[in-house]
Amino acid sequence: MASLLITGGAGFIGGNFVHYWAERHPDDAMIVLDSLTYAAHWQTIANVEQAELVVGDIRDTTLVEKLLRERSISTVVHFAAESHVDRSITGPDAFIDTNVLGTHSLLKAARAVWLDEESGKPHRFHHISTDEVYGSLGPDDPAFSETTLYQPNSPYSASKAASDHLVRAYHHTFGLEVTTSNCSNNYGPYQYPEKLIPLFLLNALHGKPMPIYGDGMNVRDWLHVHDHCRAIEACMTRGVPGETYNIGGGAEMANMAVIDRVCAEVDRAFAQDATLADRFPDAPAAKGRSSSELKSFVTDRMGHDRRYAIDDSKARAELGYRAERDFAAGIRDTLQWYLDNEAWWRAVSTR
Which of 82, 131, 227, 233 is catalytic? Predict the structure, then answer.
């Protein structure tokens, strides 16, 4: 039986990981450290019996040291982060506080307990990061690899780049056993409705405009969160300490193509289930019209990166990872999850 500290485990990716780990490792204990800010909710992990929620701040180094020490924790899986680019433009301070200072607090605590007090104890600190640290690609540029130069363009990506460098430094300077994964755009259950896919799904249900930045042709690689959880497990169990692994979904698409897929799936669902028109009477699909009529172009976001793409050949070769979820099926499953879990998204949307 192992004990894990999962930071941000009541959020989107962290919450999915808690469910995933509980299914794969039912004898392990999970301490979830989460400050329950707007994008996290205790209900996300409420039915996971082996997960204990501790409401607290990752910047509280004393609390983290206490948890590592008293719960005999040997693994930290670090999800906790401010992650919405738009919010980083209007309020960057929170991103520096959480993503940089918070990560440093965790590293200090891990060093104090695992290295200074318990020298030689096997441990692992896995840090979840983003492909946005690499900057923006041109249409014909090769995909991001682990050796791509960091060129972050938003306060969010700059804060994540800084945290990546701190994790690397604690390995090379102090010998902390760390791994880092840089993932592409995630989607799936429990995603807070400010991100593109759940936002547009719910707007389609409520007949609200779908705000499309610029020309809608910014390109992202889409990764189902379940595949991401599989990759994180592979990093933790097979990754080499000190190494970084890029994790992609193999679905590089323009935002407009994603939005069209969302609209088509909403229309299909209403055509197949007549009860949806009663539940969501404001949806165009409830009146036999296309959800695509809600598309609305808005002024582009400042510093909007044009294209991200992931070269995950290192993860394939060293971890045996490859994405399994087809994007079309993944979107359909995601829509069905939101339709089946209306109570969850209504609760988090009103916070």
Answer: 131
